[in-house]
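Amino acid chain
________________
===
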Amino acid sequence: MHRRNFGRLLAAGALLFATTAAVVPATAQAQTGKTIVGGFDVGPGGFQGNFNPLTATAGFTWLNTYFEPLVIYTSDLSKLTGALASEFALGQDNLTYTFKLAETNWHDGTPFTSADVKFTLELAKNAESGSIFAARLADIASVETPDAHTAVVKLSKPNSAFLSVLSQLMMLPQQALSSANVKEIAKSQWWSTKPIGTGPFKFVKHVSDQYVEMAAYDGYRGGKPKADRLINRYFANPAAAVAALRAGEIQFTFAEPDDAKTFKGNGSFRVIEGDSYVVNYIGFNQRAGIWDDLRVRQAVMYAIDRNAIVSSLFGGAAKLANCGYVAPQLVGKDLADYAYNPQKAKDLLAEAGWEKVNGSKPIPWLTYYNTPQVANVMAAVQAMLAQVGVNVVPRALDVPSYNGIVRSEKWQDFPLVYAGLQNGPNPGSLNVGLNAAQTPPSGNNIMRVEMPALTDALNTAMAETDPAKADGRWQKVCKEMNAALPWAPMWVASRYGVVSSKLKDFFWTPAPGGGPYVSHPEKWDLAP
């Protein structure tokens, strides 16, 4: 598609894109000592206002400053290492995981023990708690606690993604939560008023729609943090956060690509660029009734000039995806590339009887991405789909509202979404969004995908614990996704963070959902 025509489509498609507004709060004032202020929940890796790690799908960059998991990815996302587990090992049966626990305390002074591990795993496995981990932890057969510093988890079948799942499961204090009603725990005020963790910072206060404040935990096993306080300031959008960064009100934020470029060459800031590890996709609600015919889903793919969008709206900073992966070892060969072909899209829709199925009826298209770039992307896609006879109406929601809709029984409210799901560092992460066993409320298969061949491929890959065979198993998952199109995969974009040069020893990576990963918040320091 020529750039001139693309521009016309973009202008024509900028219709009915509703976004939620928020007031940018005033900067929270530090009481004493060094205070680091950041927009830690700005952008796709953030989850503003969420404090319950059992329900969090993002925001781990911030959550991991006061909660900690048993295991965690290294800062380059290449492998798992110990966090609250000082050692961990898988037995020869490929079913038994043994965790040796670090000697540390909760912020209230209570020792962290294997009883907390057992409590957390059992709570997270219980769907009544509102946990998004319930289906992912369904293979746990038992959790044994032979002593205070040893936890043994036995699975009912091999699960190659188990440790990766644990990397996002924050350990919770049994002494604080064991008496709570499981069915009401997700809505408890405890999470936002007096949560207790084991991390380098402890909770101070939350001012609704403005900020969250933490104070250094002097008893942290990794040493007393260099900063006295951390503040996570809330922003309505990335542009507002960037303005605060330029004004010196904060020291870090996620930034849109166009904004990030304006900081390059400026010695007062450092720009961090990296792969998002997230495949953006157009998700077809499989129970909406209008996407049942594969030819309709194929038509959506052929109708979108993905190369033009990547070139014009991402500035080339994205890779096309033809399944849920882009890593070469997982993609394999002989995939359909769904190159832009609007005439083929029209022909497929005609063959599928689209006029009778839906015709020109408006199709609500939801997203939780609330940025100008995504607004432009969705407007461009809207215009392209309109050219072949598919009328979508984009609408952006805040994350809690979006999650509330797509995880509910209101099928009619979301026949289509624009979303993202991590494709790395562990390929098993896609299982939660595609396996038929992972439909809500137990899992995160929000599109209610029930494709037997795809589920079989996922189950086979998930059970493969031999690294030499694993890539081939995941290639079959990719091939099945490419052929059956449970989603319309789009691209994997680069992401950007901008850091003030005054912030020292600070590490951030555009990890899926914000991580977690080894970032050592206790080492973050602020120069005068």
Remarks:
- Confidence is low (pLDDT under 50) at residues 12-31.
- The longest helix spans residues 467-484.
